[in-house]
Amino acid sequence: MKSKKHLLILGIIAVILILAGILGTKIYLDKRNAENIPSNVGEETNTIQQLEELNKEEEKEPEIFHGDDRPIAVMIDNHTGAWPQAGLNKTYLVYEIIVEGGETRLMALFKGQNVDKVGPVRSSRHYFLDYAMENDAIYAHYGWSPKAKNDISSLGINNLNGIFYGKPTFWRISDKRAPHNAMTSTKTLLAAAKKKGYKTTSKATSVLNYAKEEIELSEGKTATEVKIPHSYLHSVTYKYNSKTKRYTRYARGRLQTDYSTGKSITTKNIIIMFANNSQLQDGTSKDRQNLHNIGTFDGYYITNGKAIKIKCKKESRRSKTIYTNASTGEAIEVNDGNTWINICPKKANVKIK
Known about the structure:
Layout: H1 2-35, H2 44-58, E1 72-76, E2 93-98, E3 104-110, H3 128-134, E4 138-141, H4 146-154, E5 159-161, E6 170-172, E7 182-184, H5 186-196, E8 221-222, E9 225-229, E10 235-241, E11 246-251, E12 254-255, E13 266-267, E14 269-274, E15 277-279, E16 289-291, E17 295-303, E18 306-314, E19 322-325, E20 339-344, E21 351-352
Parallel strand pairs: 1-4, 2-20, 4-5, 14-20
Antiparallel strand pairs: 1-3, 2-3, 6-7, 8-18, 9-10, 9-21, 10-11, 11-12, 11-13, 14-17, 15-16, 17-18, 18-19
């Protein structure tokens, strides 16, 4: 009996010793692990913050279109007597559209730029207002057609008309002849806009979807030279420079240069849209034009030596034009950089090679 009791006591002691060993081992391992914690443990919060910062970098606004400065749209004379023009290389977007007599006129858009000379400034045509509105731009011009005058009033366009302003907002230069010699600047236009009580900031997003990374149109056709005949009188050619990855602009066979710097006019992106124009019956017999630009139209997007077919859809005068890939139906992205949008007749014999 005494032997059984002795064995029970020994068994209890053995169990206690085993439990004590297990507990001791756990304490030892916990201590050792605590002493050998990797240096980055406990920095998870910092890592998350760093990832968030990287994401912000990836989502940053494009260089060509950023900030909350409201765009300024300026009507630019494109008669040969106005060449060379000033400020076009500082734009983020330029529209070229037919006007009377087979000429074209340009509407140059600036955002957050300080450009000392812009022009020569010319008069308004009503269909350019559609593109000023879709860019939420302050609209600057020197005179207007009767239809443009009426539409500026009825549409409530924030406009600055050079006819009603002298220096410093608009001025004339002596080395060009009137009416091809009226100049302005983004600084003086902004000052005039503030005096008029126009808002000078805008939260409106860009009409174009800018890509975060450089786009190469692998499925596109070669586009190292693009010729766009706007009319019997006026044609435009863009020639691709593979070193700069930009297009140099020619009009009527002449290299286009900047009035202030002498540098060639270049662009990163070209959009062509085919839309018919017709003579406007405004009682003036001056061959002023109407642009039939509401609906869906064929076109091209051209960048980095390649071109793809696109669709250009505009539902109303105020709505933004939506540019989609003709093959996929998806909205196109464009490369960060300035863009020229050339709107020409549907039957224009555009040559891309």
